[in-house]
Amino acid sequence: MPLVAGVDCGTQSTKVVVVDADSGATIATGHAPHQVSGGEGRSECDPDEWWRALGDALDATGRAADVHAVSVAGQQHGLVLLDEQGHPVRPALLWNDTRSAGEAATLVDALGGAGWWAAEIGSVPLAAFTVSKWGWVRAHEPAHAGATRAVRLPHDFLTERLTGVAVSDRGDASGTGWWSAQAGEYSVDVLERVDLDPGLLPRVAKPDEVVGQVVEAIGGMRKAIPVGPGTGDNMGAALGLGVPPGTPVVSLGTSGTAYAVMTEPAADPTGTVAGFADATGRFLPLACTLNATLAVDRVANWLHLQRDDVAARTGVTVLPWFDGERTPNRPDATAVFSGLRHSTTPQELLLATYEGVVAGLLDALDLVAEQGSGVDPAVPIVLVGGGAKGATWRNVVLRLSGRALKVPRREDMVALGAAAQAAAVLAGEHPSAVAARWAEGADVDVYEPVDRDDEARARVSALRAATP
Questions:
Q1: Cα–Cα distance measured from residue 375 to residue 378, given in angstroms and rounded to the nearest whole number
Q2: What CATH number is associated with residue 216?
Q3: For a FRET experiment, which of 118, 223, 297, 467 has its CA 20 to 30 Å from that of 267?
Q4: Could you read off the pLDDT of 368-415 as tens digits, one per residue?
């Protein structure tokens, strides 16, 4: 029973799962928080925080010394700038730092418009994308840009610290804006436009490649064990689920995502769907919203309600854009409440917030289904993330989608996907085969469909269309 470790370096914390490489059963877990600073569009973290948290999370498992392979999944898009000694030049700009919205818009126009980006890169840059953040640093902090000798993503940074090798993977690289999911390589046109030397970027590894060995012991983990290529968090979650192509997935976390593994690349010129690659050699068209479970929790706290203390129905409509929004692309937007009356109850307001989040994600899922090789309309939606545990979240998704749901009982899907990579490099398998094998024995709760509430979906859509 060899053990492997999968790492999830998220926005707020790092998680580690220690897994039986044969069965996929979780043997131990560890967790450590990060310090994130922000405000007024800013979201930053010292990359050394991730390294410290990785060691603490490994140590917390109590089984790090027994691990035979490891792989790291990390939050997408984060911009990590390193100097000649490999030290951070400045705190990393995280995916939810929206200050680079202007740079994103300028980039889109500078290289042929949204249609060019969708066709050549697979995605149209938004404020979240790494290329936009690099543009912001060049414009606002030229000294930091000039001192940069290496550009990494969060998972790249940790993999390099573990192995000494500058390497990324196709899934995470496809979220930068300068690596083309269509062509499978860095884009010379984009790099020249943003004045970024390709020599500052990591090599992009194959999905089943051993990228190196652990050269620096950390958290009790031994040296010389193999390290997998790692990937972005959304790609890690998709791999951890082990779902076949065409299965729709909705993830409810601090942010929300809607995606599906596909066999053909996506190219959405509206920019709503990002045409990412996945961690297996396939593709992962994905739409992301900034506001999901945190928006509901915020309104519940304001109203002094428990999360599930909601009305049965409501005529109130909410666009929960408290942090701006990514889908639709409204980085400077604020939340909107419509339809309030003297008789409106707090429970109606809370239900309307749930509906605003879910309707936005389901509309995004409809757009995902139009991309690449498409989504199977006959299969249930797979619902994951912290929100999937909540009865109200499940009920609202059921009512607004009119589709059956499957909710995996396992947690930590991002770390589990990384663990599947680790198991694959240990056994010489492909990670998709490992993940599919593990998924066969996983427990899943199934919820039957109910009649779709088209009125609620229409209310949210109409308010979105009317909001400038």
A1: 9
A2: 3.30.420.40
A3: 467
A4: 999 999 999 999 999 999 999 999 999 999 999 999 999 999 889 999
Q: What is the pLDDT of residues 301-355, one digit of tens each?
A: 999 999 999 999 999 999 999 988 988 888 889 999 999 999 999 999 999 999 9
The verdict on residue 180 lying in a domain is yes
Helix (H) or strand (E) holding 428: none
- 3-class DSSP assignment, residue 125: coil
User: What SS3 state is found at 317?
Assistant: strand
Q: State how far the Cα of 79 lies from the Cα of 132, in Å rounded to an integer.
A: 10
185 belongs to a structural domain = yes
**Per-residue pLDDT for 441 more than 90?**
no
Give the 3-state secondary structure of 65-119: HHEEEEEEEECCCCEEEECCCCCECCCEECCCCCCCHHHHHHHHHHCCHHHHHHH
Q: What is the pLDDT of residues 247-287, one digit of tens each?
A: 999 999 988 999 999 999 999 998 899 999 999 999 999 99
Q: What is the pLDDT of residue 217?
A: 87
Q: CB under 8 Å to 140, separation ≥6 — which residues? A: none
Give the gyration radius of the chain's Cα atoms. 21
233 labelled catalytic: yes
Residue 153, Ramachandran bin (φ over 0: left; ψ between -120 and 50: alpha; else beta)? beta
Q: Write out the residue range of the structural domain in which residue 33 sits.
A: 3-241
In a domain? residue 284: no
Q: How far apart are the first and last CA of the chain?
A: 57
- Which ranges constitute the DSSP H helices of 141-281? 142-147, 154-163, 170-173, 188-193, 233-241
Residue 101 lies in a domain: yes
Which of 156, 172, 233, 412 is the catalytic position?
A: 233
d(CA 255, CA 179): 24
Whole-number Å distance between alpha carbons of 114 and 105: 10
Q: At how many degrees (to 10) do helices 130-140 and 101-110 cross?
A: 110
pLDDT digits (tens, 9 = 90+) for 3-31: 999 999 999 999 999 999 999 999 999 99
Q: What is the H or E stretch that residue 231 is in?
A: strand 231-232
The count of structural domains within the chain is 1
What amino acid is encoded at 404 in this protein?
A: A
One-letter amino acid at 106 equals: T
Instruction: Answer yes or no: is pLDDT of 468 > 90.
Output: no
Arithmetic mean of pLDDT over the chain:
96
